[in-house]
Amino acid sequence: MKLLKPSTAIIIITAFTLAASVSAADNLARRLAGRILLQVESRGEAWYVNPADYRRYYLGRPKDAFAVMRDFGLGIKHNELREYLNNVFPERLAGKIMLDAEKNGEAYYVYPDNLKGYYLGRPRDAWNIMRGLSLGITDKNLNKIGVGFLNIKTGSDQNNNQNQNNGTGGNGALYAAARAIRSGNTAKTLTYFAPELRKAVEYTMNFLGGEGRLALGNILSGSKLVKSTANEKIYANKVYFGMGGYDVEIKFHVKKQKDGTWLIVNL
């Protein structure tokens, strides 16, 4: 039997160790998706694990909680929402933030432990509720979950170019576009897409009714990051086609532009 050289053996062992570590971290993030995590070994910092990309988002201030509501909320019909609030939400919505798409966009956090919806009113109310429903976690385990970044706008940012809503790392563009689509705001929607796509996007917005825009927005905001480079992020989601009875994977490419903003380059 031929013995491996020490250097080769070390490389193989290291590769297996890293693969196991990545797999364990990925499983942890998936298991905690939708949870609010509280750093019990630190100063009690709170984090939201987004089910769409399995990254954790900081909830240090009320405006952070508000940004989570704004960026990660999924639109839902008013009657469907009221039915769930009077009973419980389905398991598939556990840990997600639901927005009343037919009223004023009221937000509710679906607590995974009991599948009940908790109303997230003003930013401070949302912050208090989300921290109150948190799950303690050690720093060691928390650090296994990748950090995501929200686009927090301050008062001085309000007059900046609206493309700055595209956020850090490209995820902001996807979630912001989803919000604009669900609200039916065509002009704002176009700012999140590459110029060559805007005519097609405008036609799509004009063609779709309220239900269609709600569905498209939810497909975008429910997409998960599957590939990431410094200048491009690829997100994927599966859409069920009832006529054929099968799922079709749809991918969205978000690319960094020369001015530093991120735009969706396909639809």
Distance between the termini: 55 Å
Report the count of strand segments: 12
Domains, number: 2
Proportion of helical residues: 25-40%
Number of helical regions: 9
Radius of gyration: 20 Å
H/E element sequence: HEEEHEHEEEHEHHHHHEEEE
| Unreliable residue stretches | 1-22, 152-168
The proportion of residues in beta strands is 15-25%
Mean pLDDT: 78
Order of adjacent strands in the largest pleated sheet: 3-2-1-8
Morphology call:
globular
Helix and strand composition category: alpha+beta
Largest sheet: 4 strands, mixed
Structure description:
With 267 residues, the protein is an alpha+beta fold. The chain folds into two domains: 36-142, no CATH class; 164-264, Nuclear Transport Factor 2, Chain: A (Roll), CATH 3.10.450. Helix content is 37%, strand content 22%. The protein is built from nine helices and twelve strands. It has helices at residues 6-31, 62-72, 78-86, 123-132, 139-142, 171-183, 186-190, 198-207, 210-221, and strands at residues 36-39, 46-49, 56-58, 74-76, 97-100, 107-110, 117-120, 135-137, 224-228, 232-241, 246-256, 262-264. The strands form three sheets. The chain has a four-stranded mixed β-sheet with strand order 3-2-1-8. Strands 4-5-6-7 form a four-stranded mixed β-sheet. It has a four-stranded antiparallel β-sheet with strand order 9-10-11-12, covered by helices on one side. α3 (78-86) links the parallel β4 (74-76) and β5. α2 (62-72) crosses α4 (123-132) and α6 (171-183) packs antiparallel against α9 (210-221). The longest helix is centred in the N-terminal third of the chain and has 26 residues, at 6-31. It is globular and about 50 Å long. The N and C termini lie far apart (55 Å). The model is unreliable at 1-22 and 152-168 (pLDDT under 50).
